[in-house]
Amino acid sequence: MTDATTTPSYKYKSASAKTGLSRRALLKTGAAAAAASALPAPMLWAQNIKDITITHIGQSYSTIPQIAEKANEDLDFEVVMQTAPDTTTHVNRLLTQPDTVDVTDMPNTNMKYFLGRGVLMPVPVSAYKYWDQTLSLFVDGTYPDGTAASLEGYAPIKSQYWKDESAQEFSLTPTDYLVGVPMYYNADTLGIRPDLIGRPIDSWGELLNPEFAGKVALQDGVSTGIADAAMALEALGEVTYVDKGNMTKAEIDATIEKLIEYKKAGQFRSFWSNFDQSVQLMASGEVELQSMWSPAVTEVRTRGIECTYQGMKEGYRGWYIMMSAMNHLEGLKRDCAIEYMNWVNAGWAGAFISRQGFYNSVPDNAKEFMTADEYGYWYEGKAAQGDILNPFGKVMEKAGATRDGGALWDRMGNIGIWNTLMDEDRYLVRQWQDFLSA
Amino acid sequence: MPAAQSAAPPHQRQVLSPKVASWLQVAPMAVIFTLMVLIPLAIIFVVSFLDYDFAQVFPELYLGSWVDLFTSQLTLNLYALTFKFVAIVWVVTFVLGFCIAYFLSFHVRSGALRLLLMAAIAIPFWTSGPIRMVSWVPLLGREGLINQALMGLHLTSEPVTWLMYSEFAVLVAYINLLTMPMVAAMANSMAKIPHSVIQAAKDAGASEGQIIRDIIFPLIKPGIAIGSIFVVTAVMGDVFIVKQMSGSQVNTVGMSIVTELNAFMYPPAAAKSIVLLVIVLSIVGLLLRFADIRKELQK
Amino acid sequence: MSKPNPRRARPLSFYFLAAILSAFLLFLYAPMACVYILSFQGPTGGMSFPMQGWSTHWFQVLFSGDGQGVGDIGNAFRRSIRLAFVVAILTMAISLSAGMAYRRKFRGSNFVFYSAITSMVLPGIFVGFGIALMFNLLGWRTNWFTSGIGAQLTWTLPFGLLIMFIVLGRFNPSYEEAATDLGASARQRFTQVIVPIILPGIIGIAMAGLTSSYEETARTSLNIGTGNTMPMEVTGLLTAASTPVLFAIGTITTLFSFTLVIVSLIVMSRLAKRRQMRTAA
Amino acid sequence: MKLALLKTPDTDLKVSPVPKDTAPATPKLKQATQSHRFDAEIVSVTKRYAPLGAPAVDNISLRIPRNSYCCLLGPSGCGKSTTLRMLAGHEDVSEGAILIHDREITTLPPVERGTSMMFQDYALFPHLTALDNVAFSLKVRGVAQIERRAKAREYLELVQMDHLAERLPNQMSGGQQQRVALARSLITRPKVLLLDEPLSALDPFLRIRMRAELKRIQKELGISFIHVTHSQDEALALADLIVVMNDAVIMQAAPAREVFETPTNAFVAKFLGGHNVIQSKGREVSVRADQCHLGARPGMNSLSGKISMIEYQGTNVRITVTTAENEDMTVLMPALTYFDHAPEIGETAQMSWEASDEHALAPM
């Protein structure tokens, strides 16, 4: 484990946080508090909170035993983690069994499924400690320079705020209630095998270049696959979109028609549906270029296989994971859930996830738990001074390496499309099947 | 329960009538299927007639899922491919399964060797599915062993790409997995044929082919039926193998249902599931007409 | 049964069929062999050939959890095994009981049989979703020992029933008639005659139940409650990791299944031997 | 080796009339016509299952004359079934040769041997009717359906099963199945019919009826039957030639009467029953139990012992005398004679016999 050496020793619970919470707890647990008024307040709080268990179900990058271990060390209640095997199980679980979950982290594109379901808790902005330090991209949808970020696809701001406490509708402008706490995000692009291609690749259009027929892969799944394809089709000028992240029926038809042509011509080798498949396709030489995730590219490279991850001129495909709490939470447990969400962005966990190649929404906090070299490499686009290790202590990059695409805003500031769930999803899913059947 | 535990001939004193005994014996299974399969199935049936959007189903009558199912070219494409898989896999596993079962039952003379070979055939069946699936790439992939061998022998200059992520790959994985149930079911039926019967047929001058056609084949019908039920239901219900081996590039009925379920579009998935179910049950019904496996049990 | 004979030549069909069987075994084991070999891939190696040296590195990674995110494999494995054993025993008991029922004609036999086929055919995710939805509608909480076991039984029981058909189809009823003639009660016939004779088949059902429970995800994942089973954990792992660790898991799982198969084979042959000795005595 | 010479069969035998609606011409079922010396001949045959193991059949030779009913008799494990299976071609011969109608068939497949085997479990094809079972061998030879069915019906008539022609095996009784199996074996017109314990699965009443039937059919067809049994009654009742086997070798092969009256050794005498094996004047002799008397008689050989058992058998009474050496001797006397004296169990008694009734046994 490298944490011990790379992170300063840190005790999370500040005295103020503890008393602040205990005061609220006292107010809420009126009767019990009155009965126990003879006892010193912090004792009672500690006693009550010990029996609380917070169940966190989420993505495999955030539900890691090491993080759970650290959370349990820092917090007085218990945190139990479960990795959702896939999005379908995850969403279905939240919808059909909401009370078996307390907090969850998931892509913001899923949020549409929760509209009007009353499953997710509106998180008061006041309860989240780091909203002030959170990047403006999430707070009001702007880049640090004040310009508005791309709204093509499902931009973070589209499901960041509830309109009001009833949590029935999203708001594009800031309100007092968060749909969830921003967690991590990244800018994806095409991973390529320079050794096999031998020339620069700078456009998503290359995904459909007949030169690479049978040597490209798309992401499996309707809404992710279509986003990659739309970037390519738009780059080639074959289809024009008003918003390629939210197509009209006519745009969907045009897209599918083109894709069927390409499929029949044997353009696609395979579709990948998880990290492992994308790595295997790339590392085994099945595919020479495909849209990839940052850690997958790193994984390919650690096998000694060249793989680059440069930005394309049309921009990156952005994505964003947020953490929400469930609406069934009450009283002390609700407070604990919020406390846990605060802990997650307090820095330690953010640093842990950053070392996997993703950005944290409160970089200042994460920075505290990373060495200058680490932060320089992952966030600032600087050349690594020493070896860059992953959170489990394995060497990811040798000294001297720089991150493909550069610094945080070089990458996140150039989003061509956000991962998406279109309004015409129903129509798209139907047409997508014709594509698969072709 | 004890009185219910076994079939008793009529002259035996009985606490329970045989019918009641049967009901009691089958009750646990019936309860589980009713609770865990039929009630969900009823829900699925109702859902197929409802309107939907974004993981929600609205309590409004909507026939679109059914209309699309019965009128679209997609349905035809899906079933054409699914039946193509079923037909090819059935024929190959049947022929292969018969050859192997016949060889083991009538050509292998040592009982120990027969048991060993049976175990060898059965054991890979117990390996985890996902792991068995990832194992095909190093074998059939562009840089896989077979391509390396083909290119090493200068049989091809370019890697053969249709070995993996293709319909061929799907078929290979199905046959790899489903030959074993066919072998087991047929070998089991063959083991019931007394050797003297085969000997008698040989004495009568029947050739090996005639013995297979006139004696073995009619006598292993129940085994063929059970093996076929396994194969047909496995292929028609499969989503996993077809997804992994085709790289999600072919669309069968099962894949289509899963695509819709993954997009939380329950009504069309429900309608497709029900049609699929009706078709499979009809095929099983036909197979049982060919050989009623249950009648064998009743003496 | 004919005995080996130097003079009577094997028919041509023997060689032809032996060749088919050999080819089939090669076909069956080739991908498996890839898994086993690649699990000993060197530390810098990947998921395909060529091998970058040989090592037990990936097994060490799997067991120590060092240097790689391998999730919560240990706990997931324990959960899966616990669930698999319960499901195996239930599958065995319920299928045995139901199989006995099918030795007579009874009203409703078609109902149960086609329910079993239905259960086998319905897409797993749908069954799982339906069960979760039903629990939700009824206000019950999903749990590994209620909805989890129930969901898994919908997968294992149809196979159990079909295997029972195979097993009982081979059972010679005259043994039972003989026992009846000798004055055995229904219970005695069941415990003293039927069960010992079909025991290998019953163990086979338990084995099938054990392995298919261990493998199942589609029906289980929504109904297991908190705590992933092994295949769920592996699937989750695949969204974040890609190393020969997976092949190491494959090799270990195979070893585990092999051990189970071999142990049950030994148990069965012991039982058979004991029976032989008893009859010889 | 003694050979039983039997009278050659009389002229052709007509079979019971065929119903009018089947074959136009009444067929002749008589099968043995050519001239040859022996129906079957076994020459120095040895069978070993393991290359160096003890032989299951050890260098036996046997000649079965034309048109004989031959019974292979012996305790289980004596090699009689193996011998039959070697005759049938179901078992390979390790050493030696087998001839049928003077032609060597040692390594020929069953169907080319001119033998036909009737299995102990009948081995009827469970999915075929009685008629189709019988017609099977014609079917595989490509005989047209009408023709083969007509032929099969004739053979069902021969075994009196034509009324159940359309039944499946599991719809028939054991005796009926056996008749069908017999018809199925005969339709191949074998030169020698091999029967493996054919009567053992039948009840005693059926067994006696069936054995008469077998004898009738054998005589009617004029071929040889080789019948394996462990029942001496069956062998004595049926056989023209009895072959007694023990421990992989032939003890005696001779006509029934000769075997019974002059057993070659103590084993044959004991196995057939009805004999006392006695040490008389330093040699081993056998004396038929019905030629022994109770009570000392002048001029006769005798021994003494205690009466240990008395069995009333209707016409005869069987008295067991146990000697001081604890050997059981049997006296079979007419019931009338017995009731004159009515000796009782426990009495000391003398058993006597004429020296001329002694039959010297070969040492084993």
Automatic annotation (TrEMBL), chain A:
The keyword Ribosomal protein does not apply. Pfam families: SBP_bac_8 (PF13416). Keywords: Signal. InterPro entries: SBP, TAT_signal. SUPFAM superfamilies: Periplasmic binding protein-like II. It comes from the Bacteria. This is Uncharacterized protein. It comes from Aquimixticola soesokkakensis. The lineage of its organism: Bacteria, Pseudomonadati, Pseudomonadota, Alphaproteobacteria, Rhodobacterales.
From TrEMBL, chain B:
GO terms for cellular component: plasma membrane. This is Spermidine/putrescine transport system permease protein PotB. Keywords: Cell membrane, Membrane, Transmembrane, Transmembrane helix, Transport. The keyword Transit peptide does not apply. The gene is potB. Residues 79-287 form the ABC transmembrane type-1 domain. It comes from Aquimixticola soesokkakensis. InterPro entries: MetI-like, MetI-like_sf. Gene3D superfamilies: MetI-like. It is found in: Cell membrane.
UniProtKB/TrEMBL annotation, chain C:
One of its GO terms (biological process) is transmembrane transport. Gene3D superfamilies: MetI-like (1.10.3720.10). The chain crosses the membrane at residues 12-38, 81-99, 111-135, 155-172, 193-214, 245-268. It is found in: Cell membrane. CDD domains: TM_PBP2 (cd06261). It is a multi-pass membrane protein. One of its GO terms (cellular component) is plasma membrane. It holds the Pfam family BPD_transp_1. Residues 77-264 form the ABC transmembrane type-1 domain. Keywords: Cell membrane, Membrane, Transmembrane, Transmembrane helix, Transport. Its main location: membrane. Belongs to the binding-protein-dependent transport system permease family. CysTW subfamily. PANTHER family: PUTRESCINE TRANSPORT SYSTEM PERMEASE PROTEIN POTI. This is Inner membrane ABC transporter permease protein YdcV. The gene is ydcV_3.
UniProtKB/TrEMBL annotation, chain D:
It comes from the Bacteria. GO terms for biological process: quaternary ammonium group transport. Residues 1-30 are annotated as: Disordered. This is Spermidine/putrescine import ATP-binding protein PotA. The keyword Amino-acid biosynthesis does not apply. InterPro entries: AAA+_ATPase, ABC_SmlMolc_Importer, ABC_transporter-like_ATP-bd, ABC_transporter-like_CS, Mo/tungstate-bd_C_term_dom, P-loop_NTPase, Transp-assoc_OB_typ2. PANTHER family: SPERMIDINE/PUTRESCINE IMPORT ATP-BINDING PROTEIN POTA, SPERMIDINE_PUTRESCINE IMPORT ATP-BINDING PROTEIN POTA. GO terms for cellular component: ATP-binding cassette (ABC) transporter complex. SMART domains: AAA. The gene is potA_3. One of its GO terms (molecular function) is ATP binding. Keywords: ATP-binding, Hydrolase, Nucleotide-binding, Transport. PROSITE patterns: ABC_TRANSPORTER_1, ABC_TRANSPORTER_2. Transmembrane segments: none annotated. Residues 40-272 form the ABC transporter domain.
